[in-house]
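Project standup — Tuesday

K.O.: blocked on the structure for the chain from last sprint. Re-posting the sequence here as requested.
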Amino acid sequence: MNYRTFTVGSLIPGKIAPVPKSPDIVESPLFEKERPKEPYTAIKEVSTPKKIIVVQSENKFEISPAKGKLLDIALNQGMPIKYKCQKGTCGQCMVQVLQGPGLSKPNEQEHKKLGNELNNGYRLACQTVIL
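H.V.: unblocked you, prediction finished:
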């Protein structure tokens, strides 16, 4: 690209101003050439932790997974889950788990208190650990 320096004398019709050639001036295009478009790729799915969904006496709660006891995490997130002893003996915190990725296996206390109800998805929130 030619760079011209205009002076009062160079604006006279018919007179062509000289184009300086300087090593400091590097010719570069105003706009870069458009790159060829890359082939379309599918958007990658970002794995987000699934919510833990539990039901207690017809109230449905969606709990965001975090490490700790299910009851503690639910209470910290403002879920009004009923509880009493927090030892697994009263059964007040019994919930039915509809969706629960990453929960611990039922412990001995849950087996004693719930028995066959474990097969129906029931757990004691105070004894269930989110891994």
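K.O.: great, moving the ticket to review. The chain has a mean pLDDT of 81. The helical segments are 70-76, 108-114.
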